[in-house]
Amino acid sequence: MSDSPSPHQVCIAGTGSYLPEKVLTNADLEKIVDTTEEWILSRTGIRERRIAAEGEFTSHMASKAGLKALEQAGMTADEVELIIVATITPDTLTPATACYVQQQIGAFGAVAFDISAACSGFLYAMKIAKRLISDGAFTNALIIGAEKLSTFINWEDRTTCVLFGDGAGAAVLRRAAPGEGSILATEMGTDGRLTHLLNIPGGGSACPITKDNVDQHLTTLAMLGKEVFKHAVNRMKESAEKVIERSGLKAEDIALVVPHQANLRIIDAIAERLAVPTERVFVNLEKYGNTSAAAVAIALDEANRSGLIKRGEHVVLVVFGAGLTWAAAAVRW
User: Fold this and answer.
1) pTM to 2 decimal places
2) For this structure, is 217 an active site residue?
């Protein structure tokens, strides 16, 4: 799904992120499951990941990341008009985690809701917020990707427990003033025929958790890794190419590609297919693992705060997740 002309340009006015204090290393995982640090690193590129504290929920991490983004944007919480939280690990099935975030940061004038698009969620939120701002419904939005995946991991499954971590990333979008940067193009897509490749099968109306199935790990992530890899590379390449083309850019015009942080092999394959040198591809996967909807948001904030993105430069964000879902965005900073 691509963009159509809109009256107002929209910029990214600030970014923020939050990572829990607890670090879980590959060496730690060797003590939990039958795996080795060499195996994890060679196949994923991950060295460690963050794990939220017992009383630290998705909303808490989302709020902390959101407040940092607001601070950088020079905004207060009572100025926020729209809050969208992308997550597959909500505090509760209802109400939305965004409602808890509104309460925690004091943004009581904001409309707040969640979206569920797995690892693609943050860029889905960006497209939705961009459209609502550009059409005049709102003048600003706080979009957040936040996950407490450690709650939904089978720590006995060595094929999945090594991949995921907890964290949150956020961005403030608002109407752009003349001469400011803007979100040039966005793209998103879904293929529901492939829902079986990556899912949490239990806990919903289709498979409620009962005393008879409570020990079957039905509320933990299940994945067919090889199939996910193949589709991830193809869909991320296609969606990135679309936003690059619609923005009138070429590979040499892109200062930085910020991809979903799931697997270093996927990231390398995307860089090669987009003809972008690896030094212009941002990677923090080794520190945090796959944080789903939070991953690209955390990466964007780290790239921004480290000075890797300068005013006027072009950035391409590209993601892929369960659903199957994918999305991309081209931004002039």
Assistant:
1) 0.96
2) no
Which whole-number Å values give the CA distances from 69 to 63, 80, 183, in the listed order?
10, 12, 17
Dump pLDDT digits (tens) for 94-106: 999 999 999 999 9
Selecting among 99, 119, 161, 284, the annotated active-site residue is: 119
* Catalytic pick among 26, 140, 284, 290: 290
Rounded average pLDDT over 122-127 = 98
Would the pLDDT of 208 be above 70? Answer: yes
Which parts of the chain are beta strand (E)?
Answer: 10-18, 22-25, 48-51, 82-86, 111-115, 140-148, 166-175, 182-190, 198-199, 222-223, 254-259, 314-321, 325-332
Instruction: Take residue 278 and report the two structure tokens written for it.
Output: 């690896």
**pLDDT (tens digit, 9 = 90+) per residue, 264-300?**
999 999 999 999 999 999 999 999 999 999 999 999 9
Catalytic residue among 60, 217, 260, 314: 260
Is 161 known to be catalytic? no
Give the separation between CA 322 and CA 157, rounded to whole angstroms. Answer: 19
